[in-house]
Amino acid sequence: MLTARHFTPFSLNLRGKLVEFSRQQVMGIINVTPDSFYSGSRTQSHDDIALKAKKMLDEGADWLDLGAYSTRPGADDVTPAEEIERLRTGMRAIRSVAPDAIVSIDTFRADVALQAVEELGADMINDISGGLLDDDMPSTIAKLKVPYVLMHTRGTPATMQQLTDYRDVTGDVLAELARRIDIFGMAGVNDIIVDPGFGFAKTVEQNYRLLRDLEAFHVFERPLLVGVSRKSMIYRTFGTTPDEALNGTTVINTIALMAGASVLRVHDAKEAAEAVKIVELTYNDKTWLHLE
């Protein structure tokens, strides 16, 4: 019989209330940028953002992740003022169609995180740098008392792909994440979601090693987020493009779910939600236990 790690329910403090999640979650990506690596994720006008948000939620997204700064190598720099203005447009659009949706803000800047939560009403912060790019992030998140996605990377988006010299990629990433978790914990941050950082400061081969070892990340006893959607670890493997990487994304998402991932961060909500349902029926639904 096939085996899989059963998903562990988790809880987060959202808007002052403890919310429990009894099933694996889908986080839909909305980029209010002109230059994100996958063109299908780019939205800029109020109407386009609102339409995309509604479609994602209708197709099975549980959360939305709003980003206004492309972190792909070679992307244009965006000032904090421009980033927050883009986020303001995005949040207004999302709230116009989904006032109660759980919305994460994808930013590595503490001042942008502060405004996004206090002014725009964001529910959590998703930081691709794990606080490495802004020393004020731990104290800011502690002050805001919101969940924080702590992702592993090295360097900056411009330098990260030159920083892939690991003795043992899984062991080193775990150790580096542990140090960042300690820093945020000492600052008073309680709700930390761990992200191994697929595609950030890793070669294609290292990404697949992390995927193989994904269960090791449960050592932190925190929710685990996996974000591989249409990334280069997929399309470079087949010599294709992000536009052609949906099937590979779904395969990897399924592997991640079977390893007990808590959250999938995706461009394509329908396919991810279907993967969650199928894995749930196969492995996590108690009505199937008599078959084991």
In words, what does this structure look like?
With 292 residues, this protein is an alpha/beta fold. Helices cover 38% and strands 15% of the residues. It has helices spanning 46-58, 80-97, 110-118, 137-144, 169-187, 204-212, 232-238, 246-258, 269-284; strands at 10-14, 17-21, 25-31, 63-67, 102-106, 124-127, 148-151, 192-195, 225-226, 263-266. The strands form two sheets. It has an eight-stranded parallel sheet. The protein has a two-stranded antiparallel ribbon with strand order 1-2. Helix 1 (46-58) crosses helix 2. It starts with 9 loop residues before the first strand and ends in an 8-residue tail after the last helix.
Poorly predicted runs are: 287-292
Major β-sheet annotation: 8 strands, parallel
One letter per element, helices H and strands E, the order comes to EEEHEHEHEHEHEHEHHEH
Share of residues in helices:
25-40%
Order of adjacent strands in the largest pleated sheet: 8-7-6-5-4-3-10-9
Q: Which shape, going by the Cα principal axes?
A: globular
Oligomer: single chain
Structural class comes to: alpha/beta
Mean pLDDT: 91
Number of helices: 9
Distance between the ends: 8 Å
Let me know the number of strands.
Answer: 10
Radius of gyration from the alpha-carbon trace, in angstroms: 18 Å
Strand content: 15-25%
